Amino acid sequence: DTGVSQDPRHKITKRGQNVTFRCDPISEHNRLYWYRQTLGQGPEFLTYFQNEAQLEKSRLLSDRFSAERPKGSFSTLEIQRTEQGDSAMYLCASSRAGLVKNEQFFGPGTRLTVL
Amino acid sequence: GENVEQHPSTLSVQEGDSAVIKCTYSDSASNYFPWYKQELGKRPQLIIDIRSNVGEKKDQRIAVTLNKTAKHFSLHITETQPEDSAVYFCAASFSGGYQKVTFGTGTKLQVIP
Question: Do the beta carbons of residue A6 and residue A109 sit within 8 Å?
Answer without folding.
Answer: yes
